[in-house]
Design brief:
Four Helix Bundle (Hemerythrin (Met), subunit A); single chain; Arc Repressor Mutant, subunit A; mainly alpha; about 220 residues
Length: about 220
């Protein structure tokens, strides 16, 4: 995730719509109408359609066989499946990258963790999610495997969407406490311990989502 200004109009529309979906401004099930979005965002139909195609790839918009488009609904089943997929991808990246981390990397991780905590305290879910995602990205990119990071990027917005649903809950603590423990272990030189603690974040988070979200579904 990045704070950079999008380079194209389509990229700007993708970011705007993604943010609206992640935060719930566009709720699950919302019918997506090209003309209405184009008028609201002040762009032509073309970047709207290109953005919808991209967000469909990311799993945030469903395109039905009759070509109607809706914001994807979130169920406990697909939330847990998403966490499982994210865990496989991110933990592989962490494992491949952790031994390549330098002091500069660790300093960046500490900075992202502070941004994560500060944004969450300010109630800025998007900034918190971006900083939290960047924490993992720093380590994954240290592996040198950019293809893996590209795969992670495809599912990270949906993971942030689940977190945004729980902005006032304790689910964020799995990440806050996990990141703090990882930083301590890295600073102590315990790379394998840091990897084990990263894996535990996903175990804890999955259990909390299963226990606390979608109750009665």
């Amino acid at each position: 995730m990045s704070y950079a200004v999008p380079p194209t109009r389509t990229a700007a529309v993708v970011r705007q719509l993604r943010n609206e979906i992640v935060t719930g401004e566009l709720p699950p099930g919302t019918l997506i109408k090209d003309a209405e979005l184009a008028a609201r965002l002040g762009v032509s139909i073309t970047p709207i359609r290109e953005a919808i195609a991209q967000l469909s790839v990311e799993g945030l918009i469903d395109i039905a066989p009759n070509r109607t488009r809706h914001v994807t609904k979130v169920t406990q089943k697909n939330a847990l499946e998403l966490i499982d997929v994210m865990s496989v991808l991110a933990c592989a990246g962490f494992e491949w990258g952790v031994d390549n981390l330098t002091e500069t990397h660790i300093g960046l991780l500490r900075q992202r963790q502070k941004e994560f905590i500060d944004a969450l305290a300010a109630g800025n879910v998007l900034a918190a999610g971006a900083a939290g995602a960047d924490f993992s990205t720093i380590i994954i990119l240290a592996s040198g495997n950019r293809e893996l990071q590209s795969m992670v990027d495809l599912v990270v917005a949906r993971t942030m969407r689940i977190l945004a649903m729980t902005a006032e809950s304790d689910l964020w603590n799995s990440w806050i406490q996990g990141h703090e423990a990882i930083l301590r272990l890295l600073e102590e030189g315990d790379r394998q311990g840091a990897l084990a603690r990263y894996r535990q974040i996903y175990v804890d988070y999955r259990a909390q989502v299963e226990r606390e979200l979608f109750v009665g579904q």
